[in-house]
Amino acid sequence: MSVAIVGVAESDLGVTGRSILHLQAQAVTGALRDAGLTLAEIDGLATAGASRFSAAQVAEYLGIQPAWTDSTFAGGSAFEMYVARAVQAIEAGQCTTVLVSYGSNQRSARSRSLGGVVEEHTPQAEFEAPYGALYPVSYYAMAAQRYLHERGAGREDLAEVAVAAREWALLNPKAYRHRAGPLTVEEVLAQPMISSPLTAADCCLVTDGGAALVLTTLERARDLRTDPVVVLGYGESTTHDGMAAPANLLRTGTIDAGRRAFARAGLGPADVDVAQLYDSFTITVLLTLEGLGLCGPGEAGDLVRSRRLPFNTTGGGLSYCHPGMYGLLLLVEAVRQVRGECGPRQVPGVEVALAHGVGGILSTHATVLLGADR
């Protein structure tokens, strides 16, 4: 049985003054409208962001009683994981139509908190917190320093990621930085240093926002309003929690997550027409490009600079929006690119789109491959 995404939407973005549940409801309403479905037809729910009991809280707010739920907290990769779980649940007959949703009002609430506080009596509390690292930027900065040293790259390679993101944001009216104007490598490098080698422009935005998508069987999807986007493959990998644990900061779980997704889809990196990659920091993108096999080790900077592979076509977390956990918005854009709905930022002839989420401190990784129904 094949499963397809039949509806997508985002909520208001930026500085909204809305509650988390309001933002979720906005996105859900839009995704159902896009699909031509009603809440009464939803019998599966996967969600995060509202509380430790997100699924129950969101279901109550929406007035539904789903037969299947998932509210696994895995940071930014959770939503790619939800797609995999939803496909499995539909195939197993646990439910027929799954809603995936998320919302965050971090910007309005003036908060970066998403469960990132180090708990007592953990290895992180004993061996990492006493050194006063900025969470999470200093940890990503450690990976960036190692990358520059081992790959022989320069800070300009990191900066190119932010420059490319801004170029796409200028084509996206919903992007937070849409009117900010072009960005140059020199401007990225001249921004205040937050945690060496990452400047402010190497770090993602903090915004409000939410998103939702709806999945059902491909057979049913073909009778609905929009062109179905088929889930071709998925894979994930969870490697560690604290930053002291990884033996090699440059061998991330992206490698195994991507390999599993490509194997399930019967595809390879060369088949990807457009990629939506988690960009919490510029280093995240370089590691992801290499980990997915979209280029070789140390070649990510050149790939970005060449603009050969379209990625983060909304402007990404660096210039579009970043409401705490960004992974669901990657999927929304991937679906729209496959459908050909992106206007001036549309990549011609998209048959296969990739979305890759990253959570924690390069801790959790999940890849989803989406394709047109041919």
Structure, described:
- The protein is α/β, with parallel strands linked by helices and 374 residues long.
- The chain has one domain: Peroxisomal Thiolase, Chain A, domain 1, CATH 3.40.47.10.
- It is 36% helix and 18% strand.
- It has 14 helices and eleven strands.
- It has helices at residues 20-35, 54-62, 78-92, 106-109, 123-127, 137-151, 155-169, 185-190, 218-221, 254-265, 282-291, 300-306, 316-319, 327-339; strands at 3-10, 44-48, 68-70, 97-104, 193-195, 198-199, 209-217, 229-238, 274-277, 352-359, 364-372.
- The strands form two sheets. It has a nine-stranded mixed β-sheet, with helices on both faces. The chain has a two-stranded antiparallel ribbon with strand order 5-6.
- Strand 5 (193-195) and strand 6 (198-199) form a beta hairpin.
- Helix 7 packs across helix 11 (282-291) and helix 10 packs across helix 11.
- The longest helix is centred in the first third of the chain and has 16 residues, at 20-35.
- The chain is globular.
- The two termini are 15 Å apart.
- The mean pLDDT is 95.
